[in-house]
Write a structure and sequence with these properties.
This protein is of the alpha/beta class. Helices cover 45% and strands 17% of the residues. The longest helix is centred in the middle third of the chain and has 11 residues.
Length: 191
């Protein structure tokens, strides 16, 4: 699998600066990063690193430019306002988004779009979220798709979704910061 993020030390080498300078850039909001669970080490998504380089007129090394392909997210949610909110909160990462408003449309979109991440509400029309989750886990071409369930169906249903194969679950209403953290962790595909 391709590397999707850089450590602060790796990022610092591209700029010829010290590790502490990169940490200051993160703290001051110049560079978006996420922290690894448990250790607290920062990781900078490759798309964010390339964005920072381009905005500061720094030549992007070929190996980074070649590695950066926007990740794709399919949002399966029947409330357009929630879809828009999720897209707005994750927009800074440069993801390619697609949305589906019911389980049937989700199945079609999954096969056409083959997203890196599926953000799935459990309470959707047609096929419910559990049927969509089962479809993802049983379809060979989709087995590597990460699944984040974001639903207001209650703790019991969220636990059931986790047991059915969801990589992570969030209860609605959710805090934007928790959504960003969950997505960043799920899509950190560094080897």
């Amino acid at each position: 699998m391709r590397k999707r993020s850089l450590s602060t030390g790796e990022f610092a080498k591209y700029f010829g600066v010290g590790h502490r300078t990169v940490l200051r850039w993160i703290k001051e909001g110049y560079v978006n990063a996420f922290q690894l669970p448990g250790r607290g080490d920062n990781r900078i998504p490759l798309t964010e690193g390339v964005r920072f380089m381009r905005e500061n007129n720094i030549p992007v090394p070929k190996e980074l430019a070649d590695a950066v392909q926007p990740l794709s997210i399919l949002i399966v949610e029947d409330d357009e306002a929630v879809v828009g909110m999720i897209e707005r909160h994750l927009d800074e990462y440069g993801f390619r988004f697609q949305a589906a408003s019911d389980g049937f449309k989700a199945g079609v979109a999954l096969m056409d779009f083959k997203p890196d991440l599926l953000i799935l509400d459990l309470a959707i029309p047609e096929m419910d979220g559990f049927e969509v989750l089962k479809f993802v886990r049983e379809t060979e071409e989709l087995k590597k798709t990460k699944v984040l369930v974001v639903s207001g169906t209650g703790d019991g249903e969220l636990d059931k979704a986790r047991k059915a194969g969801a990589n992570k679950v969030l209860a609605k209403p959710f805090e934007p910061k928790k959504l960003k953290k969950a997505v960043a962790r799920l899509l950190d595909l560094a080897e």
